[in-house]
Amino acid sequence: MNGLTMLWDNAALFATGLQNTLLLFCVSAVCAFGLACGIAFLLEGRQNLPRRLLRGLLDLMRMLPFLIFLYLLYYGLPNAGVRLDVWTAGFIALITYHGAYFAEILRAARIALPAGQAEAAWAHGFINATMYWRILLPQMVMRSGPLFGNQLVCVLKDTAFLSIITLMDLTAAASAVQAKYFVPLPPFILVIALYWSITLIVEALLQRLARRAQKRGLVHE
């Protein structure tokens, strides 16, 4: 059986893997970004205890390899009486882990903003929450486009680790075909092409966002 015939015969399996990968990537990326925005806002607070706890969470996620974190959630929690299905464990792992990295990106962008913006907002009567969500956060996001792009690619690549806990994503589909036919090259070349295509789409969307930000004067070339 040639490679193309093998891939065509297993098209439904690859389609399921692609659908699951896109679902994991899109939901996890959006939720991780939302989590990061909330964390970055809480880091603006003046109470030391919440800020230290959040900093500890961020440092922990940056210290742990993603695969170990996933193992702890899926295989470790049952020892404490908590059992998660593969989807729940996958989403929690991706959202928590990459939410921490997104938060670090936002924190760095916040430090780079001129202090005078916050002072001007306070002078005009803005409370901290309104100032953050309406004035600071849009600029933080727009200024961090390239870094967000890199992190989104990391989210996409880390979805492949979920195949280890038996979630049927693209990598799991390729592994299943390889195990069935003992021909590793064609299925994994197809999967590489699909991951590459998704990455190119993400980069195109971010470039469009960057052009819009430049028109609005939020970033400069």
UniProtKB/TrEMBL annotation:
InterPro entries assigned: AA_ABC_transptr_permease_3TM, ArtM/GltK/GlnP/TcyL/YhdX-like, MetI-like, MetI-like_sf
A GO CC term attached to the entry: ATP-binding cassette (ABC) transporter complex
SUPFAM superfamilies assigned: MetI-like
Keywords: Amino-acid transport, Cell membrane, Membrane, Transmembrane, Transmembrane helix, Transport
Membrane topology: Multi-pass membrane protein
Gene Ontology terms describing biological process: amino acid transport
Transmembrane intervals: 22-44, 56-74, 86-103, 160-179, 185-206
Top-level taxonomic group: Bacteria
Subcellular location: Cell inner membrane; Cell membrane
Domain ABC transmembrane type-1 positions: 18-207
Protein name: ABC transporter permease
